[in-house]
């Protein structure tokens, strides 16, 4: 590897792409092609060591291509394709090839080809193959005879190839200058391809490893502007203000859904629309939501039972989810059941901002939410999905957490860290061992969890997420003020006992549900994650500590809100979010069927 | 009134006929009327100005401009804005003379001061400036009033209209103005230099108008030398942007402007020409410029036909201009241009178009392409380009004549097949008349073309030239104040005085005057090249059989030759050497030059040999025989000369002479670049 570094200006290029270069590449690819879901359709990052003719040699992390055949005539031509085809969601795709050496005759071809096209040829000679050749500057469009296209190219030149997946054309660049359209009506799923034909020919590819010579981002900007102006100018048949009325309804229902009571009333007044739900009902929901978001889940459950009798009884899954959350909040020391033990005034921590400052966030900061949420088409149509993917990936797997809890000595750790007495210690120990047994029990039952948490992802995209900076800050500051070191259940002995007590009840509830409704892997996972918190000396900085993050209250809150609305025969998702979800899903569908314009019409672009 | 006239040209005309304007102006000027009333008056007047050109004329007749300018002194911003809006509308009308803005010096400074008042004043004032800035005088006035500093910060205004008008202002201020351009490079706004701001405005998602205008600014700055031609902002931004402006997707107006600006940008830089020629198939793209009005538009849509017709001339001339710039220096590009579909036919047609602009551009394009030896021999001959060209030369305005006669120069080069027919069609007379022109460029071209014509010409042509020109005119030209004219006239003389019979013939008829002129020039204050050329003429004369006597009997001239042999400049020394060599050389072994002369020459040559570091080694061996020495020196000198000349011109291959004496007698024709 080291000897090959001569041709490249940066020393780092010679080495196999280590983490920094790889990171740089990933960063640049993400910036260039933000709409591409790289898990579904990976981007080309190097030449394929498998998809090439024998006369091709690869080096330098499969980026450098050299010819190693006889090069007697055109029968000795050899090509190599990139590892992956160009995803349509790129919208506009670009790669560059630097001619390191033109070799004997400089018969180099740069272009595109579909999978399965003969590799014993230069790109452009066969069907579904396209190329620009260095010796004569001709373009070859699936044909053995070329058309005059551009200048010739040779050693030292950088040739770029840009595929426009919106109008299915391709143009080349030479040393940063666009040479004009070379091909039209390109098929989809083409691979970047280079072909060489005489000894000594060497070329280096740049799939984004380094900055491009041609300003491709400027070209992308032009197309983004074009597509966005198409959208802007798209005609809507507006009969007698229907359009406006619809928009107003969407906004209004959204406000109501999230319980922005006074804003909704003001909006209704100004736009002269009516609100379906009663004021008091909105306020009730608002109160309950506030409680959940403040971490006072116990109170929230009480309030719900009081205001909407029968609701939780009919929704055992929701109840279980709430209770799990309550347990987590107890660990956190925020739930009122443990807070009342605290020496401090419980109100001092009740600093969760009121509804006016709660504002949903749909930002790119949570882009994974969009992707997970809309992954399952059903959710965008307003149906709760029970099989949304991923979302548990950020948690450590079951086996690892249970093994860590069994390998360490949880009791001693807890003992030393908490200011509890002997009795607590034993209690805790027993509870932990209890948990251990239940863990192992679950471990035996647990296979894999292909399906993640039930409503977590789907509801979150539907209902939006909440601005948590303030909450976090107030929470943290209050904690820092009062207890410099965050402690289990606020460091209170009685509270810890109550928590353990509650954990037992929760375990019983789980078993009861299991009996009544059959096994529910989701519940098991939730319970396990919650209990795992106790296995660590510092739950806030442990592999499952993320649960303690106030942001995790949001899905629970949204689920509860949706359930209440559903019980009132109101839509459990606001139409605005539904439309948003639908738009996102539409774009994903476009990407899948090869419509490149999806990359420049992203929902995110319109949300800020 | 306001509501009645808005959008209704008829009503506007009616009101004007009824005499509303003087009344409105009266109310506007009354200090005592309320500002609301005065503002409304300005608004109505502005509305009237929005109408036809006749409306504007009527307003101008009522001296509306001074009244409105007076209004700008008011403290009320609304009123000022209304006045400015009306002024803007009047000044952007083609019937308004721009000079009206500059009659009072305080107006400009007041406008500059108003620039800080509001986005509206900024927009209107910039618009007024950009429409009223015509030519270097206006540019200087505005520049001296601090236009650059006052307007620069508007480029980052939040209002698009203000940004755009400020940008337009800069594009007219900087156009062909090195002073403004050099200043702009170093101005920065919010820590960003203007070129960077312009480059940002070139981004492809910006409105086309903005991209085009900022490309014009950068082009002006580049041509003024403020930005290097190899700067990335020119090579990778401005040039590609202008090429994009030429594409089919753009409006016809944008395509015209894009092509003209690009032509200007690359006019003198071969690297930019090469880059433009490969960018986005520009050469092929330009061929579309000739397809208006298209046959489709004629059938489908009368409006479109009208639109196309209006722009057809502009498009054609823009394309010709750009082709001319593209092909100015690079032979491969010229070839590509000529290979474009029907290119030569289009040029030939363009030469006989009614529009002067198109004709001029077509001639320019032809001139650019005529620099190619290959094309002169092939496509130029195939399409008999000389015919329409000769026609253009008859009674054309000077600007066309200049370019056309330059082209003719190239078509008259000895290897051009067009030379013969051009001669037959009476070119000598035409060219001789050009040499009498008041216009310097025409005089140069006329005499240049004659010089090319005389190169290796037959006796008859030479006498025709001499007769057509007349000796008086010849001497007139020799005393021309312009060095170029003088040089070409000397060149013509040198070409006329070649081959022994011709020399003797011409010297027998014009000997006296020529010797006189030569003496005069050698005595006069001229640069080295002129003296060298004159000495070469002497050398040619010395080559004659009878003509030689004119020198041998002229002691004055002999002394001068001797003087130049020991001149400090090597070129003059060499030229004097030619004279001596030719004087001494005598095939007939007849009369020998005087012995005294001989001796002096020997000493000089010895000196020369000792000083010369090129040929001393070779020459020492043959020093014994005087003649041989001279021959040797001359031979070497000849070789040196030839090398020099080959390097000077692309014509080296056409002159493979083995006889070094011949070499001395000629002055070859040169390409007109």
Strand content of chain B: under 5%
Oligomer: heterodimer
Shape of chain B: elongated
Main beta-sheet strand count, sense and barrel state of chain B: 2 strands, antiparallel
Q: Got a strand count of chain A? A: 16
Q: Give the terminus-to-terminus CA distance of chain A.
A: 47 Å
User: Structural class per helix/strand content of chain B?
Assistant: mainly alpha
Q: Could you estimate the helical fraction of the residues of chain A in percent?
A: 40-55%
Biggest beta-sheet profile of chain A: 7 strands, antiparallel
Q: Return Rg of chain B in Å.
A: 33 Å
- Name the pair of protein chains with the most residues at their interface, and give those residue counts: A-B, 17 and 13 residues
Low-confidence segments of chain B, ≥5 residues, pLDDT <50? 587-596, 612-629, 635-670
Supply the number of helical segments of chain A: 21
**Helix fraction of chain B by DSSP (H/I, runs of at least 4):** over 70%
Choose one word for the global shape of chain A. elongated
Number of strands of chain B: 2
What does the average pLDDT of chain B come to? 81
